[in-house]
Write a structure and sequence with these properties.
heterodimer, A: alpha/beta, Flavocytochrome C3, Chain A, domain 1, Methane Monooxygenase Hydroxylase, Chain G, domain 1, 5-stranded parallel beta sheet, 5-stranded antiparallel beta sheet, 17 helices, globular, B: alpha+beta, Ubiquitin-like (UB roll), Fumarate Reductase Iron-sulfur Protein, Chain B, domain 2, 2 domains, 5-stranded mixed beta sheet, two-stranded antiparallel sheet, elongated
Chain lengths: 642, 248
């Protein structure tokens, strides 16, 4: 597998500029002769589709929801980082780069992260010009707040709905191109396979989720922006429809899958309330700016009402253990700390399956200091959301929170041009792997999705089309015939499932295996167990799952079964990756590799690389390839937030 | 708690209500209770040959706008400022019969059961719900100060999730609150000011062409809106139309 990252030579700060000059351009008149297929309409997909269409390319964009505006980027709450230094507090492109590489625990690619930091400033300009109503100061300038893992205020936000406002901005740009006839939007349409012709990505096979029609699409390049695979855990903060199918099918067609074990467990989510739970709800990280995290110091207090626990009996464990970052330590650190105190018996809240898995996030001090109105202005909608779900008001008593699966840093391997190991297949946003290493900092996902879509792919795709792309291909080509046949045969297998167990039940069981053995803390022993249990579960699925109805109509049970079948295969790749990575780093925490204080211990001499998994056939284990990660500008060091 | 869902089922061959009784927990979300119904339908497939209930849902945290059910006569159910997915069973009582129907409007044809086609909303946005600014041509974000009150007001209208509850609640199936929210959001910001005349005209024309009814000031839309968008949006929409030289 060729893993040349194609990082341009020259000084770090000049790489992107010199690369943009070196990239070949497509003549404006020739652009309309090229068709680009974009999978997904979230921040990365919508911004890419709109920007490519503005340049003159013909674009087909696909999403499985009923409108591109529903992509799960819409649910991002807290904000988007940019190195604007509007606060005059010492921020710079280099500092955002530095914080992101360090926050990712030295497993991301320096050149990509530097470019991300550079274009971050253009993103804010673009969004404001679209009419995104960011929070502002009374003087009319943009407001900022702080987020975990940073000591400057560089996060731009729109109340607790930043993702929604940014996505609606990208959606509006997309709509303008749809109206111009440059983007052909295909809603309620799911990608089921990638078509590779002579080694290049040249098309898709999709299913119309309303009519059931299986259709072939030929194009000159494919842009995949299909999001992350957090739902492999069943319970996550992802939307119910989020899935691995697009990226997993691309993997089976030859795209390398990098670092699948790097998953982010977000520290502040509403705890599980029972076995029927279908998803978990995030409470924005921004709450940690003003909320104080604590548990009782004494185990006998865990069942008491928080108001009955005296100040001296409260253990503000983040503030005590990490005095310089306090409640604003990065997500992986905060999540593990919460797990540790709960595992030690200090958790609070309802007993579910014999455990109290929750800690307090308390706003009493902030309300006393700033007043209820100020707190409501900043967090009102989050407090309301919490109240709707739990029936309790965070103005009156502390929130109860616990970590939950939120984001996946792993994804399809891409080079500096965002191209995967399959020429022509470009991968953007959460679906790729390059920028966040082993842990993503808060407010960086929105930044990356939009950077990739607005400011990277419009430049790099042209270079592919001029230098590597080969000739016209039609849907009559035999590769389309074969891919369509494979999709139809898989669908027939799924429709033939007439056991007694709902597909969701298998998904829940897979989730329990993954959370238990491949969640916040992992061991070689547990991971080996998972490698036995996952194939067993997969067999049971194919023997006893039930899919109701036919293939030629709206059939949620068929859609779900296809996605769960892919998760049941993909989970194994993820567990293998976690097992082979015999170190702790960022969100990947191996119990065998921790310091006396319980912090993650990396092994840079053996694991300062991206592990890139190559599909080798259904009956053979995948092959592990590596791309070394070199750190010339941020010195490899142990992260410390103390 | 024991509850019975009386659910509208619709496909090529059937149209009508079917009832499903389950034991629910008060901590369950409304959609989780429907998940329980669907799992029961699959496990007891001989008893329920009609198969699981089709309904739209995705984020399940009140922001994607996908969920869309009329519950006991109210779009998104009995709670103010709450989407169907945010509604919890503690809003109901033991023994309740809960009637669940799809959005009903000519412009939102039913696809299956509780799933309707809302493409008309996208069509309206495509007619003009944007600022014509290409990628890369933006000035510095702080170059143009915007007062906090203006930005906050714009946000209040921009918070629309495009669910369609306003249409479902309106006796005329009008989407004027939806149109007004976008028109006003962009009209009051300096970035959107340039195209405000063309925008309002085009979006209202697209609205009418899609088969939505006209507004006759029932204000049911505001009461049903899960994001509490004020009906002032419609008054301001009319002001925009007058500015554009169109008689509302």
């Amino acid at each position: 597998m060729d893993l040349d990252p194609h990082v341009p030579s020259g000084p770090l700060a000049e790489k992107w500029d010199s690369h943009r000059f070196a990239l070949k351009l497509v003549n404006p008149a020739n652009k309309r002769g090229y068709r680009v297929l974009v999978v997904g309409s979230g921040l990365a997909g919508a911004s890419a589709a709109a920007s490519l269409a503005e340049l003159g390319y013909e674009v087909d964009c696909f999403c499985f929801q009923d409108s591109p505006r529903r992509a799960h980027s819409i649910a991002a709450q807290g904000g988007i980082n940019a190195a604007k230094n509007y606060q005059n507090d010492g921020d710079s492109v280099f500092r955002l780069f530095y914080d992101t590489v360090k926050g990712g625990d030295f497993r991301s690619r320096e050149a990509n992260v530097y470019r991300l930091s550079q274009v971050s400033v253009n993103i804010i300009d673009q969004c404001v010009a679209q009419g995104v109503p960011f929070a502002r100061e009374y003087g009319g300038t943009l407001a900022n707040r702080s987020f975990g893992g940073a000591q400057v205020s560089r996060t731009f936000y729109a109340r607790g709905q930043t993702g929604q406002q940014l996505l609606l901005g990208a959606y509006s740009a997309l709509n303008r191109q749809i109206a111009r006839g440059k983007v052909h939007m295909h809603t309620r349409t799911e990608m089921l396979d990638l078509v590779v012709v002579d080694g290049h990505a040249r098309g898709l096979i999709t299913r119309d989720l309303v009519t059931g029609e299986i259709k072939r699409w030929a194009g000159d390049a494919v842009v995949m922006a299909s999001g992350g695979y957090g739902n492999v855990f069943y319970l996550s903060t992802n939307a119910k429809g989020c899935n691995v199918t697009a990226t997993y099918r691309a993997y089976k067609r030859g795209a390398g899958f990098a670092n699948p074990c790097f998953t982010q467990i977000h520290p502040t989510c509403i705890p599980v309330s029972g076995g029927y739970q279908s998803k978990l709800t995030l409470m924005s990280e921004s709450l940690r700016n003003d909320g104080r995290v604590w548990v009782p110091r004494n185990k006998e207090d865990v069942a008491k009402a928080p108001s009955e626990i005296k100040e001296e009996d409260r253990y503000y464990y983040l503030e005590e253990r990490y005095p310089s970052f306090g409640n604003l330590v990065p997500r992986d650190v905060a999540s593990r700390a919460a797990k540790m105190v709960c595992d030690d018996g200090y958790g609070v809240g309802h007993v579910v399956d014999g455990h109290r898995n929750a800690v307090y996030l308390d706003f009493a001090d902030a309300i006393a200091r700033d007043g209820r109105d100020t707190v409501a202005d900043k967090y009102g909608n989050l407090f309301d959301m919490y109240e709707r779900i739990t029936g309790e008001s965070p103005y009156e008593q502390p929130m109860r929170i616990y970590p939950a699966v939120h984001y996946t840093m792993g994804g399809l391997w891409v080079d500096y041009n965002l191209m995967s190991t399959i020429p022509g297949l470009h991968v953007l946003g959460e679906a790729n792997f390059s920028d966040h290493g082993a842990n993503r900092l808060g407010a960086s996902a929105l930044m990356q999705g939009l950077a990739d879509g607005y400011f990277v792919i419009p430049y790099t795709i042209g270079n592919y089309l001029v230098t590597e792309h080969k000739g016209d291909v039609t849907v009559e080509h035999e590769a389309f015939e074969a891919a369509e046949k494979a999709v139809k045969s898989k669908q027939a297998d799924l429709l033939a499932l007439n056991g007694d167990t709902p597909v969701d039940e298998f998904h829940r069981r897979l989730g329990r295996i993954m959370w238990e053995y491949c969640g916040m803390a992992r061991t070689a022993e547990g991971l080996r167990k998972a490698l036995v249990e996952i194939p067993k579960l997969r067999e049971e699925f194919w023997a006893d799952a039930r899919v109701h109805g036919g293939g030629d109509t709206l059939n949620a049970s068929l859609e779900k079964a296809g996605r769960v079948a892919d998760f049941l295969e993909f989970a194994e790749v993820m567990v293998r990756d976690a097992l082979e990575r015999d170190e702790s780093c960022g969100g990947h925490f191996r119990e065998e590799h921790k310091s006396a204080e319980g912090e993650a211990v990396r092994h840079d001499e053996t694991f300062a690389h991206a592990a890139v998994w190559e599909y080798a056939g259904d009956d053979k284990p995948p092959i592990r390839n590596v791309e070394p990660m070199e750190f010339e500008h941020v010195k490899l060091s142990t992260r410390s937030y103390k | 708690m024991r509850v019975t869902f009386k659910v509208w089922r619709e496909n090529e061959s059937t149209r009508g209500f079917r009832s499903y009784a389950i034991d629910a927990s008060e901590h369950m979300s409304f959609l989780e209770a429907l998940d329980v119904v669907n799992e029961m339908i699959i496990r007891e497939h001989d008893k329920y040959p009609e198969g699981p209930i089709a309904f739209d849902h995705d984020c399940r945290e009140g922001i994607c706008g996908m969920c869309s059910m009329v519950i006991d006569g109210h779009p998104h159910g009995p709670r103010q400022a709450t989407t169907t997915c945010q509604l919890h069973m503690r809003s109901f009582s033991d023994g309740d019969e809960i009637v669940v129907e799809p959005w009903r409007a000519r412009a939102f044809p039913v696809i299956k059961d509780l799933v309707v086609d809302r493409q008309a909303f996208d069509t309206i946005q495509q007619a003009g719900g944007y600022v014509s600014v290409g990628t890369g041509s933006a000035p510095d974000a702080n170059a143009l100060p915007i007062g906090k009150q203006v930005a906050d007001e714009a946000f209040d209208y921009a918070a629309c999730i495009g669910c369609g509850a306003c249409v479902a609640a309106c006796p005329n199936a009008s989407a004027m609150l939806f149109v007004g929210a976008k028109v006003v959001h962009l009209a009051i910001l300096p970035q959107g000011d340039v195209e405000r005349t063309d925008r309002v005209t085009a979006m209202v024309q697209a609205h009418d062409a899609a088969g939505f009814g006209g507004c006759t000031n029932h204000e049911e839309c505001e009461a049903a809106c899960p994001k509490e968008i004020s009906v002032d949006a419609i008054a301001k929409l009319n002001v925009e139309l007058i500015r554009a030289g169109v008689t509302p």
